[in-house]
Design brief:
Layout: H1 2-13, H2 17-38, E1 44-49, H3 54-63, E2 69-74, H4 81-84, E3 90-94, E4 100-103, H5 108-119, H6 134-153, H7 155-162, H8 165-171, H9 176-204, H10 213-236, H11 241-258, H12 271-276, H13 280-293, H14 298-329
Parallel strand pairs: 1-2, 1-3
Antiparallel strand pairs: 3-4
């Protein structure tokens, strides 16, 4: 196994651009997550109708100073089609007596938030219980890039198959399990070490990263193992490196986006949300979110166990498929 690690490292050094690209993507994902998390989230665009009344307009201008809504003060009501076209989330008609009328085609939840804002504009702070915190965002932004690195580094294993080097390897004293475990360990370390190093540097610089370093070690290690096992399994079914690379990249991109790597598209208790739980990334993001908020349940722990079992399954499939192909060629 040590021979495989040394050989893979020498081969990778001949293509240093892969290391630089991976490191840059990891850094960019963390910086983006921190920057976007610290930005104030806009809750919606409101059209405030004053009919030109001086006092009402003066009150409306006070509402413009809030950081949570983009407010447009209008003399006359806009077209109802502006709501359909999503130009405005709600039309609020104000009177001099302080009453208001809200028209919206969005959810009742948004209407309630707007009503709360209008009743207490100075002390209004939106409920952030359902929002992801900085640690979850960092992991979410890193997740897709870490899994993609697995596909990238598994190319060394794919090259052995494509160039028929694998037959020569199995004829050497190197054991089959040592060969595959060597590739797996190499890929895992290449994903894990640069990623956790960036997190440690961010911590030393005093940047708020949300979760503890111990938590990051466990979470990044889990993603590294998942990405490695999936990539090896995928490459075990193809003899051409580019085919496995393109298919793996497409699967990871689509599944990570749907699972909420950058933004959650699903709502609780919907059929779509339940279907998304087939994806390990979805269960992983739910687990990280609960871990950071301190709301872990036994169900979410089982979600994490599902990811571990799935990773083991991927690796076992890769091992048996490669062994089968080797015995066939032999």
């Amino acid at each position: 196994m040590l021979e495989i690690l040394i050989n893979d490292w020498k081969r990778l050094l001949e293509e240093k651009q892969y290391l630089f690209v991976s490191m840059i993507l990891t850094i960019c994902s963390i910086v983006s997550a921190i920057a976007l998390t610290n930005m104030t989230e806009t809750k919606g665009n409101l059209a405030l109708v004053t009919y030109g009344d001086v006092n009402v307009t003066k009150s409306a201008k006070q509402l413009e100073k809030n950081p949570y809504f983009n407010i447009s003060i209008l003399v006359s009501p806009p077209l109802k089609s502006d709501l359909v076209q999503n130009r405005y989330d709600a039309i609020v008609t104000m009177t001099e007596e302080g009453t208001y009328k809200i028209e919206s085609i969005k959810s009742d939840e948004l209407t309630s938030v707007i009503k709360e804002f209008l009743e207490n504009p100075l002390s209004f702070v939106p409920n952030s219980d359902n929002e992801r915190k900085i640690g979850t965002n960092i992991i979410g932004y890193m997740m897709m890039f870490l899994l993609l690195q697995g596909v990238l580094y598994a190319r060394l294993f794919a090259d052995d198959k494509e160039k028929h080097m694998i037959e020569r390897v199995f004829m050497s004293p190197i054991a089959f399990r040592g060969y595959l475990l060597g590739h797996a360990l190499f890929i895992c370390l290449l994903i894990f070490i640069p990623s956790i190093s960036v997190i440690i540097v961010a911590k030393l610089l005093g940047i708020k990263i949300g979760l503890s370093l111990v938590a990051y070690v466990g979470l990044i290690a889990t993603l590294s193992i998942l990405g490695t096992a999936f990539s090896l399994m995928l490459n075990s079914f193809f003899c051409i490196a580019d085919t496995a690379n393109m298919l793996g990249t497409s699967i990871i991109l689509l599944s990570s986006i749907l699972a909420g790597s950058f933004y959650s598209f699903s709502k609780d208790k919907t059929v779509f949300d339940k279907l998304l739980h087939i994806l390990p990334q979805k269960d992983f993001m739910d687990f990280v979110n609960a871990l950071e908020k301190g709301t872990l349940t036994s169900g979410l722990i089982w979600h994490f166990i599902y990811i571990v079992i799935l990773s083991i399954t991927f690796f076992v499939v890769a091992m048996f498929k490669t062994r089968k192909d080797y015995v066939y060629h032999k």
